[in-house]
Amino acid sequence: MPETGCLAPSKKAAGKAAKAVVTPAPRMRRVRDRNQGLLLRAAERVFARAGFAGATVAEIAREAGVPKANLHYYYPEKRDLYRAVLDNILALWLGETDAFTPEAEPLAALEAYVRAKMRFSRDYPDASRVFANELLHGAPEIGAYLRGALRKLVASKAAVIDAWISEGRIAPLDPVHLFFSIWAVTQTYADFDTQVAAVLGVRQVSARQHAEATEAAVALFLRAARPDAVASRTTSGKLA
Amino acid sequence: MPETGCLAPSKKAAGKAAKAVVTPAPRMRRVRDRNQGLLLRAAERVFARAGFAGATVAEIAREAGVPKANLHYYYPEKRDLYRAVLDNILALWLGETDAFTPEAEPLAALEAYVRAKMRFSRDYPDASRVFANELLHGAPEIGAYLRGALRKLVASKAAVIDAWISEGRIAPLDPVHLFFSIWAVTQTYADFDTQVAAVLGVRQVSARQHAEATEAAVALFLRAARPDAVASRTTSGKLA
DNA sequence: ACATTTCTTGACTATTTGGTCAGGATTCAC
DNA sequence: GTGAATCCTGACCAAATAGTCAAGAAATGT
Question: Any CB–CB contact under 8 A between A157 and chain B?
Fold first, then answer.
């Protein structure tokens, strides 16, 4: 899970003897991994509930159970830690689109994706919130990723969906906006979980309520994506 | 627009001569209104792009064009200013549900609501973002509002929709989750506008693209909410 | 006019916070 | 063992920031 691209003794620290710092040496990896893991998990929690600006390194260190100075040993700057957290999250967030292949059954793929995203919002609410917060403030750290990998991914999946549409196997919904909608709806149950709980009249959204939310989301998208039953039922396409 | 419940010379300032402080006096209202307006608008912008913790009163004051000390004259604490901004936003956010009356045409009401919410995300993106940020961090300031007015509102509108459902005039979607979904989808175009722009491959979402997003959202919800044409077609024949 | 209230603002302060550092403790390869 | 890399950490520091204050400048009612 670690190995986030941020080597520990940063440029500054490695000022004097810069010989074999390239690889952190295959030696003592246990301690580093352990502490980085602790710090990453603590940081995710704290960033999730306070945002980047609102989080303090002291609090993260306390939550991780290590002295602040030790945190700075692994992550020289607050931003390094934040980046590491985001990198972890992106890896998770990107997945789950495998179902969208030309041969797949469109509605089944859609349902699987919605369910996967709902599961994500249940299992990794902190990750979702950190991600949301980053987007909300203009994605200063992951903008390049959004314009790169994510954009490419969406474009390729949109092509698949467009093909399904022209075959009449799914309703003619704009695929890109469909993705935006799915992300929005599923993440709302993590990011704005406070609002959901408040409107539902509970302190915390229960597992059961989350399951109901999942069914509601699935129903919404499946109903919307259901191809118009009528159509012209000709050979290839339909009402083009 | 001002008159946000936060009178200027707070408890502290009004320590000595506390006689007729109840009403700010109908006198000099011009200056106060003007400056509070400037500050509120500046604060909304700054809070929108930096969040509560990330925003600095100095920046808000600069953006409003007044000295920092003058800001503190009207809003003794940063939180007072934040509350005032939120109060303004809530008033806006609450509206637009008038269309949901028992007599209304369900799909028309739904469409009107979605369009209104999309318009909101276009016209008040900063308000939307401040609101989103507040929710994201657990709604420390407006939690009571969510559990009170908002919850009641949703409950009453959900009852209307449930009635529509039992009359077969709209698809059997959970009304409360329908609201969550509509809010999620429409606000995503304000709150996560960075992501939308990135995936669309543009720097800024254009007016035209926002219009397309609106049509996509309307299509999504109308298709999902369309009652199943078949049904039982009994006594109170609906589909008029 | 003039007393009174409201407003304005530069200068100041207390606190928080990210980050540094030097010296010591561990750990590991050999 | 032992030497070298790695790790640990209390004590510090400089910068940023929310909030104060007191003295004076407008504005206002009568």
Answer: no
Is the distance between the Cβ of B70 and the closest atom of strand C smaller than 7 Å? yes
Mutation target among A145, A220, A226, A228 for the B interface, most CBs of B within 10 A = A220
* Residues contacting residue A84 through CB under 8 Å, at least 6 positions apart: A2, A4, A5, A6, A36, A40, A43, A75
Are A185 and B181 contacting, i.e. CB atoms less than 8 angstroms apart? Answer: yes
Q: What is the mean pLDDT of residues A186-198?
A: 98
Listed as own residue / partner, the contacts of A31-36 with beta carbons closer than 8 Å and 24 or more positions apart are A32/A2, A32/A8, A32/A74, A33/A2, A35/A64, A35/A66, A35/A70, A35/A74, A36/A2, A36/A4, A36/A74, A36/A84
On whether the CB atoms of residues A139 and A130 are closer than 8 A, the answer is no
Confirm if A99 and A112 have CB atoms less than 8 A apart.
yes
CA B44 to chain A, closest CA, distance in angstroms equals 14
pLDDT in tens, B170-216: 999 999 999 999 999 999 999 999 999 999 999 999 999 999 999 99
Whether B5 contacts chain A with CB within 8 A? no
Is the Cβ atom of B24 within 7 Å of strand C at any atom? yes
For A43, residues 6+ apart whose C-beta sits below 8 A from its C-beta are: A55, A60, A64, A81, A82, A84, A85
Does B17 score more than 50 pLDDT? no
Confidence band, pLDDT 50/70/90 cuts, at residue B67: very high
Q: Is A195 in the B-facing interface, judged by CB distances under 8 Å?
A: yes
Distance of CA B86 to the CA centre of its chain: 9
Across the interface, whether the CB atoms of B216 and A173 are under 8 A apart is answered yes
Residue in chain B closest to A131 (alpha carbons) equals B192
How many Å from the CA of B77 to C1' of D19?
A: 8
Cα-based torsion angle of the residue sequence A19, A25, A31, A36 in order, rounded to the nearest 10 degrees: 80
Instruction: Please give the average per-residue pLDDT across A167-195, as a whole number.
Output: 98
Q: What percent of chain B has pLDDT over 70?
A: 83
Closest residue in B to A222 (Cα) is B224
Residue ranges and CATH numbers for the domains of chain B are 30-84 (1.10.10.60), 95-225 (1.10.357.10)
> Do the Cβ atoms of B44 and B134 come closer than 8 Å?
no
- pLDDT tops 90 at residue B10: no
